[in-house]
Amino acid sequence: MTGFSVDWLNLREAADRQARNSELLRVATTFAFSGVDSQAVVVDLGAGTGSTYRTFGQRRFPAEFAPTWRFVDNDRGLLGEAARRADQNHLIETYELDLNQVAQLPLIAVRLITASALFDLVSAPFIDRLIAEVDAASAGRPVGIYAALNYDGSTCWDPVHPFDQQVLEAFNEDQTTDKGFGPALGPDACNYVKQALEQAGFGVQLAASPWQLEGKDAQLVAELIQGIGSAVQSCPELVREDIADWLAFRLAHVATGSCTVGHTDLLAIREP
Ligand SMILES: C[S@@+](CC[C@H](N)C(=O)[O-])C[C@H]1O[C@@H](n2cnc3c(N)ncnc32)[C@H](O)[C@@H]1O
Hints:
Bound molecules: S-adenosylmethionine
Shape: globular
Radius of gyration: 19 Å
CATH architecture of the domain at 6-153 and 183-212 and 262-270: 3-Layer(aba) Sandwich
Number of helices: 9
Number of strands: 8
CATH class of the domain at 6-153 and 183-212 and 262-270: Alpha Beta
């Protein structure tokens, strides 16, 4: 899949950071940096411009525990941006790769796999293949998966509009279409991934990480509204005039209204 611009990822980074569940993030960072080997490896799938790496960097650890970060993405421009923004004293490796090539993922010596705003885009078979690769790469060693900011299918607006529910249903339908991995898990992502990881012997925790957006986030909210509008254009249950009406109302309230977009963070850890 293409189409994640630096501008969009920049726009959402602050809201994402605020939304991430702080307890799961704390446990994930502690797990990543407290291995018996001082040179832990973190593999960030769909790294974009490195938002997850920067979030982990907010927590300070002794230099000897700084892990190697492997950024994986199929967008060369985003990978370049991630590397450019990284702390030059850190060990950073970039991998321009289609994640569907799971056997090519750089999982050697991995301690933690991270993925933010990604697992709702992927399919169930992709998750199954990924878990099998992680399983093989980490046999006999502790390994963790931190997958944050998975859209959960809920969006609440204030003020309300009569078409909110219809638009939400159409948007959620679109979220399950192919985003480059086969039919996307969409709002069901965390349930599926949790179950699959538990079957593979991981202990899994889920925690809410909603975007809570208001006037100060007007630019992000406006982009979100436009994105929802585009996604529902071809929905047969919605007439074009109704979508236009909803869009105009929503855009008129970006500075004065608020919205909550539900996400779930997942942390899975397996000790041998
Ligand atoms: C929603 S963005 C999230 C980026 C970053 N994790 C963040 O939280 O800001 C999804 C990322 O996955 C990458 N991506 C999507 N499909 C991919 C694929 N098939 N192979 C590799 N990367 C992919 C995109 O290029 C993008 O950087």
